Amino acid sequence: MTGGAVGSLFAQFFHLSSAERKTLLVAGADGNTTVLDAGTRELIVSYPDDILHEAVSKMLRHDIGRLPVVDRQDKHKLIGYLGRAGVMAARLRLHEEEHVREQGLLTTSA
Question: Most CB atoms closer than 10 Å: which of 6, 30, 82, 88?
Answer without folding.
Answer: 82
